[in-house]
Amino acid sequence: MDVDAVVAGVVARGLRAIAVRSAVRDRAEYLRRPDLGRVLDEVSAAALGSLGRGSGDGLRLSLILADGLSAVAVVRNALGVLDGLIEAVDGWAMTEVAVAEQARVALGDAVGAALGSDVTVMLIGERPGLSAADSLGAYITWRPRVGRTDAERNCVSNIREGGLEPREAGRRIAYFLGEARRLGATGIALKDPEEQMLLG
């Protein structure tokens, strides 16, 4: 992943950014040791810790842009998602955007906990399939902390041109953020917007 380019794209949108890494040393270890991809390395943990938990009004939202299993997915789609999200979301205090290398989904919990976040949105490259190698997933987690499970998250998947268009994905994520704020939860307690419309 071209971390500098992603960071520059975030900054160009008026947001603060910080580059972080998991405890994985290289790609081979990433594939062998998923557990290390869920843990920040010491330098990144210290850097996030030095930022403090902030103060002021508003719930704290942290975005993490992570390579996961497809770095190209982040480079091609993450900033488009960010554009759609910025247009649609309101009422949140944004922390630094973390650009994370060698990351698994749960690394977002460690980042969010370090930043004192009320909710995190992890944009991460999905496993390349037969038809798409650039698919991005978004994982939304209320009150992130180490040990959260997938049942406590909501997922928006197949974000890419030819799938769920990135700006539209940003708007869908904004819906989940609004519902998370209303309910004080994500995961099985928070239904997909299409399901809500069907029930309504």
What can be said about this structure in brief?
The chain has 200 residues and is α/β, with parallel strands linked by helices. Helix content is 39%, strand content 21%. Strands 1, 2, 3, 4, 5, 6 and 7 form a 7-stranded mixed sheet that branches.
Total number of domains? 1
β content, as a range? 15-25%
CATH fold assignment: Rossmann fold
**CA gyration radius, whole angstroms:** 16 Å
List the topology elements:
Blueprint: H1 3-12, E1 17-21, H2 27-32, H3 42-51, E2 59-66, H4 71-88, E3 92-94, E4 97-101, H5 107-115, E5 119-125, E6 136-142, E7 153-159, H6 166-183, H7 193-199
Parallel strand pairs: 1-4, 2-3, 2-4, 2-5
Antiparallel strand pairs: 5-6, 6-7
Helix pairs in contact: 1-4, 3-5, 4-6
Give a description of the structure:
Helix 1 (3-12) runs parallel beside helix 4 (71-88), helix 3 runs parallel beside helix 5 and helix 4 (71-88) crosses helix 6 (166-183). Strands 1, 2, 3, 4, 5, 6 and 7 form a seven-stranded mixed beta sheet that branches. This protein is an alpha/beta fold and 200 residues long. Helices cover 39% and strands 21% of the residues. The mean pLDDT is 90. It has seven helices and seven strands. It has a single domain (3-199), classed as Rossmann fold. The termini are far apart.
